[in-house]
Structure formats: structure tokens, C-alpha cells
């Protein structure tokens, strides 16, 4: 049987993408949620889902703060880092992790490595770039 939390996540994403709560759209969303691969993966503990949801909610003020920092002070240094995936993550929780990384303006998840790593692009404040006047 399909995991009800994965079903809720898939339907939520479907409704956010379509912005339509009509009966035909609900039926289409249910069909797609059941037909997507990985529907029958083992269910993660509810605690893992709640923790990811709390992290996502906490990321909202952080995203605003980072956006204002980028506007007010230039961020001209870029790095690519590898972040460890938390152990025993289901595909739904991996998706939420990638969403959380990409949600904040200073970071983007570039790739998920099956070995247990996220490749993350990060911008930071660096040294000021000196500009010379031309004569």
C-alpha cells in the first residue's frame, strides 16, 4: 500500500503546481500520485517527517534574511560543497532536503549522489573587488 505521507506530499505538490481544486484535477492528482515510481517504498517514521516540516518552516525567515543580505551586501564568492545526507532517508525526505537547500537564496542543490551526498552551490561574501579608473 502507498505511504499516506508520500501521497499527501505528492498531492500537495500537484495542487501547488496546478492551482486547481476541481474534482477532475483531484482525480488526476490521485492517479498521478499512485502511478509515480517509488510509491510503495517503506514509510519513514512520522518523527522524521515532522522534523523536516519544522526545518522547512524555520527556513522561511532565514530565506528572507539571506535575500536582504544579498541585496544590501554583494556576495561575489562561489563555492561548491558536499553535504552528507542524513541516514535512512526515503525518496520523499530526500526531496524535502533538496527543497530546503534550494529554498534559501544563498544555496542550490546541484546533485544528489546515491552514495549519500548532496552537491551544493553556495554564494558568500568575499573580498571586495577593486576597480580601477581608466584614464
Task: Describe the overall structure.
A hairpin with a 3-residue loop joins strand 2 (107-113) and strand 3 (117-124). The chain folds into two domains: 1-43, no CATH class; 47-126, Ribosomal Protein S8, Chain: A, domain 1 (2-Layer Sandwich). It has helices at residues 4-18, 23-35, 46-72, 91-103; strands at residues 77-84, 107-113, 117-124. By secondary structure, the chain is of the alpha+beta class. The model has no long low-confidence stretch (mean pLDDT 82). Helices cover 50% and strands 17% of the residues. It starts with a helix and ends in an 11-residue tail after the last strand.
Summarize the structure.
The chain contains 4 helices and 3 strands, in the order H-H-H-E-H-E-E. With 135 residues, the protein is α+β, with helices and mostly antiparallel strands. It folds into 2 domains: 43 residues, no CATH class; 80 residues, Ribosomal Protein S8, Chain: A, domain 1 (2-Layer Sandwich).
Amino acid at each position: 500500500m502507498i505511504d499516506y505521507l508520500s501521497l499527501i506530499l505528492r498531492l500537495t505538490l500537484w495542487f501547488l503546481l496546478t492551482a486547481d481544486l476541481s474534482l477532475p484535477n483531484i482525480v488526476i492528482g490521485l492517479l498521478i500520485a499512485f502511478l509515480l515510481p517509488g510509491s510503495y517504498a517503506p514509510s519513514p517514521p512520522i518523527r522524521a517527517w515532522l522534523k523536516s516540516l519544522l526545518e522547512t518552516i524555520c527556513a522561511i525567515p532565514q530565506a528572507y534574511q539571506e535575500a536582504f543580505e544579498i541585496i544590501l551586501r554583494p556576495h561575489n564568492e562561489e563555492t561548491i560543497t558536499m553535504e552528507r545526507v542524513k541516514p535512512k532517508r526515503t525518496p520523499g525526505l530526500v526531496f524535502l532536503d533538496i527543497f530546503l537547500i534550494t529554498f534559501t537564496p544563498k544555496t542550490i542543490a546541484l546533485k544528489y549522489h546515491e552514495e549519500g551526498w548532496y552537491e551544493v552551490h553556495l554564494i558568500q561574501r568575499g573580498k571586495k573587488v577593486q576597480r580601477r579608473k581608466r584614464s
